[in-house]
Specification:
- This protein is mostly helical.
- It has 2 domains: 143 residues, Peroxidase, domain 1, CATH 1.10.520.10; 125 residues, Peroxidase, domain 2 (Orthogonal Bundle).
- It has a two-stranded antiparallel sheet with strand order 1-2.
- Helix 2 packs antiparallel against helix 4, helix 10 packs across helix 12 and helix 12 crosses helix 13.
- The relative contact order is 0.17.
- The N terminus is likely disordered.
Length: 318
């Protein structure tokens, strides 16, 4: 009952009429669509709680390139490189979960549910399983027909807050949206190569205890594991909550961009508000995820509904 009440409240506050996407888009054409995706996510989450971070990253990397069109799911071939070949996407994972959901959907509702919608729904379900909010996902996206590694230009962990905000603003995101979405770092890990410079320089903005811990992790690099990882949230690394904001307020941000959020004039108030109010973060995170999922979507007859998320459909006339 509590889940239903929370869901209804979120439906009231979320902007559902976004670019003609709508919650329940498949209610007639594929009534079990969302439950099929949810089943696949639950099965994977039961054995791998890190899948939440993987899906959040996949969703972000998809939406920030050509819009939310599943262009980052396309496999490269000997004749064509895809977004998967771009450096920022080499560590994106979770593709097999999308494949599993797509296979089940094709068996039930052939050529109805887009791969782009599967990513958005699967991410929502994983967030909820990790203790985050359950929010209505407007659906109706279609899949893109282009996947070009040269178009992958994502904000990186070494950017300043001001530099990162330029990338977010170009996608019609506010500074509040940016800080909220970076709160996804409440789950997941970062490779030492992304923050090793801070350790070497004995970055004074990093808590000494954290610096020592990270130094030990990165110092254990070996031939079999040349670039170890550390949790981005040192408090509750598998839970979608506001602990990330509390951590960076204590100078325990692993990556430079995360730590700078707590002190930069554009973002410090938002960080402080989220650290003090878990409910506020949950509400805004749901809203920001819906807004992210609305980025440059294809609808109507644009694009296609892929049969296999890894390859474009055969072109008619060829």
């Amino acid at each position: 009952m509590r889940l239903k009440v929370t869901f209804l409240l979120l439906l009231l506050i979320l902007p559902l009429a976004l670019a003609n996407l709508r919650v329940g888009f498949y209610s007639s054409s594929c009534p079990k669509a969302e439950s099929i995706v949810q089943t696949a996510v639950r099965r994977r989450f039961a054995r791998d709680k890190s899948i939440t971070a993987a899906l959040l990253r996949m969703h972000f990397h998809d939406c920030f390139v050509r819009g939310c069109d599943a262009s980052n799911l396309i496999d490269s071939t000997s004749e064509m490189s895809s977004e998967k070949d771009a450096a920022p996407n080499l560590t994106v994972r979770g593709y097999e979960l999308i494949d599993e959901a797509k296979k089940a959907l094709e068996a039930t509702c052939p050529s109805r549910v887009s791969c782009a919608d599967i990513i958005a729904l699967a991410t929502r379900d994983a967030v909820f399983l990790s203790g985050g909010p359950f929010y209505g996902v407007p659906t109706g996206r279609r899949d893109g027909l282009v996947s070009d590694p040269d178009q992958v230009d994502l904000p990186g962990p070494t950017m300043s807050v001001s530099q990162a905000f330029q990338s977010f603003r170009a996608k019609n995101m506010t500074i509040d949206d940016m800080v909220t979405l970076l709160g996804a770092h409440t789950v997941g890990v970062a490779h030492c190569s992304f923050f090793l410079d801070r350790i070497i320089a004995l970055d004074p903005t990093m808590d000494l205890g954290l610096l020592n811990n990270l130094n030990a992790i990165c110092g254990a690099a070996s031939g079999s594991n040349p670039d170890p990882t550390a949790f981005l949230d040192q408090g509750t690394p598998f839970a979608v909550d506001n602990q990330f904001f509390k951590q960076i307020g204590l100078r325990r941000g692993v990556m430079q961009i995360d730590q700078e959020l707590a002190s930069h004039q554009l973002s410090r108030r938002i960080v402080s508000d989220y650290a003090a109010n878990a409910a506020l973060f949950r509400t805004r995170f749901a809203q920001a995820m819906v807004k992210l999922g609305n980025t440059q979507v294809l609808q109507g007859t644009a694009g296609e509904i892929r049969k296999n998320c890894r390859v474009f459909n055969p072109r008619r006339g060829f």
